[in-house]
Amino acid sequence: MEFSNEYGLSAAFSTVTKNFFFQWATFTKEDGAVIVQKDKRSLAKHMLEGTVYAELNKANEEIQTAMRITQPNFFVPFDRSGINPFQQRFPITLRLEGTVRGNGGINLVNDTCATKVPGLFAAGDAATREFVAGGTTGGGSINASWAMTSGRISGKAAALYTHSIGEFGNKRIFFEERGRFEPSTGKSLDAIGITRALQNEVIPFEKNLFRTEEKLQNSMRILNELWREVHNSSPVSQDPRAIVRTREITSMIATARWMYTSALNRKETRGMHKRDDYPTENKNMQSRLIANGIEDIHIRLSSNRLEEKGILL
């Protein structure tokens, strides 16, 4: 889960993160000075000092045409704003894509995309991609192929599992609860306040991209407080939408706690996980970290890269 802090480049007025197009960009500061180092961390450092701009002025007419044909949604915000990105510079930002473009997700225990919960199979963004991508991630290619492949494999396995349990296939099976995701009765849940507090610890790249022990520990203290607050509260009403909102908030906090607990335990820089206080790789940490637990989180070092039962994907 430590490999879940991927940020995508985007125009400041857009949510479309097509990083590939920015290879034809010239990046500049507010005063017009050209930024030579164009990796995300370097751009992020400049963004902490002021606005950073991009202009796709390195793309010739043929490439510009191809861009608009292959990714027309990239240009919609520009066209609406009356900006020609090939001739005018525009402000950019970094948007957290978390586990969606990151690699963290539900652990898989065999080559059918099975989890440790009988009958539960994971695929796509919900499942870990470490087996195919390691500690970093690709764009649409590897992620799309993983989504299609794991979806096909897990779907077939789920169908076979349902068939194997025969008469129980049409019945719901409830498992022993090992951690509460439902809040207890208490004060009304401040959904907006908790969401903003959570986002303030996870979204800012000065915390999540430039990781240190101190920053991670400070964020974990706040996340643990939010976790307790959620479980000491109740939905503002019994309206299904309020209940769903409560579960969404609880899940986001749980994910953030898994992410930062794993990041604290990986005391090195590897893949997309960057620790400013541990700037190099540690040869003794060439293993996966498996996060377990909901109330109390424990990290287990997986000595075998393919896990106990072996992953053949």
Run of helices and strands: EEHEHHEHHHEHHHEHEE
Individual helix count: 10
In CATH, the architecture of the largest domain is Up-down Bundle
Fraction of residues in H or I helices? 25-40%
**What is the average of the pLDDT values?**
87
Q: What's the total number of strands?
A: 8
Domain count: the total is 3
In what range is the share of β-strand residues? 5-15%
Overall, the morphology is globular
**What is the straight-line distance between the termini?**
19 Å
**Computed CA radius of gyration, to the nearest angstrom:** 22 Å
Query: Sheet bearing the most strands, described?
Result: 4 strands, antiparallel
CATH superfamily membership of the largest domain, which one? Answer: Fumarate reductase/succinate dehydrogenase flavoprotein-like, C-terminal domain
Derived from helix and strand composition plus strand pairing, the structural class reads alpha+beta
Strand order of the largest sheet: 1-4-3-2
Kindly report the CATH topology of the largest domain: Methane Monooxygenase Hydroxylase, Chain G, domain 1
| Low confidence ranges | 176-181, 305-313
CATH class category label of the largest domain: Mainly Alpha
